[in-house]
Amino acid sequence: MLYIIASIIVLGFVSAWIDKHYKRKLKQKIESGEVIEPAQPQKRDPECCGMHEVCEKESLLAAVSKDIEYYDDEELDRFKGRQSDNYNADETAEFEEVLYTLRSEEVAGWVRSLQLRGIELPDSLKDEIMLIVSERRGNT
């Protein structure tokens, strides 16, 4: 048992030494221009809902203006503050009617408009909308 613990400790020291040695060599190569410094991965914005064609901060729709754009759907304003799981079939049909009259490139903007107006989508439509937006992303 003592040999196992000693082996683990020695292995830890050896790996720490190798890591330090590797980082020092890499730093020297970067400074000499032999190797280009790797790019840092971009962190995902926690405020992005994923339903935009591009994240809100890069979107022309949201970044330039916070103005609400209506898609001939003013009647949906009465659902402001309603939870997404509290819609009946007739109310969901109203959202579907608007959705099915939109062009695929308008869907992300419509969802953004609903968010700005404080209107949650019915749960039953979320998957379909995500599919439309993801297909649109794949085609652009």
What oligomeric assembly is this protein in?
single chain
- Please report the distance between the alpha carbons of the first and last residues: 61 Å
Helical residues, percent: 40-55%
Number of helices: 5
Q: How many DSSP-defined strands? A: 0
- Provide the structure class: mainly alpha
Description of the structure:
This protein has 140 residues and is an all-alpha fold. Helices cover 54% and strands 0% of the residues. The protein contains five helices and no strands. It has helices at residues 2-32, 60-63, 89-101, 107-116, 123-139. The longest helix has 31 residues, at 2-32. The N and C termini lie far apart (61 Å).
Short description:
The chain has 140 residues and is an all-alpha fold.
Strand and helix map with partners:
Elements: H1 2-32, H2 60-63, H3 89-101, H4 107-116, H5 123-139
Any descriptors?
elongated; 5 helices; mainly alpha; 140 residues
